[in-house]
Amino acid sequence: METIVQNAPDRAAFIQANTRLLAVPHAPELSLYLADEAVPLWLKTEEELEAEGLPPPFWAFAWAGGQALARYILDRPGLVAGRRVLDFASGSGIVAIAAARSGAAHVLASEVDAFAVAAIAMNAMVNGVAVEAALADVIDQDGGWDVVLAGDVCYERPLAERITAWLGRLAARGAVVLIGDPGRYYLPKDRLEKLAEYSVPTSRALEDAEIKRTAVWTFTPPATPPVASGGLQERTQRQA
Is the pLDDT assigned to residue 234 strictly greater than 60? Predict the structure, then answer.
């Protein structure tokens, strides 16, 4: 894992100048630095840094999957209380903050965008919780997390397949894996079980509707092999 990135003053100043501190619609007990529109902020980020090809500012919005997953955790704090939690592709940090607020022993929020890392640190601070924000690609890694959370990660096929395979392995070794998703095309529903569903307020700047039906999913447990005829009990009876 790469070195934890400190909250660089220039990034913090940019975030404060181009966002507003707002309550999260579906989790109003949380507040985040949020933007009104994606494309103008994206262009402004490139202009400010005099760079092109920067990632979209996913960190500046409360996406539907993250809102649903945060709500699910806040309503069920026992899922994370006292546990080590990874919030993968954390974005604004909304899910990580919900986990920290619900009593997680340690929360790691991973991101591949340095602006997101800065936003996560700022958002955690205003919500009064401790979150470790790291600039790192943790796919295919296993940090021994008890709970792994992922919101809105199935929007691109190659990445979704890679993420799903990794999350499946974590679930198979015993981690609690929860995915928040509003029905993205590449969500592997055949491998998942729906735990809850919400009507999440969002923005037409981000989605195709102002209210998105959004679910929280977990991996379906492996099927128990059927007991073959002539099992232990039958053999014992014959031997008696």
Answer: no
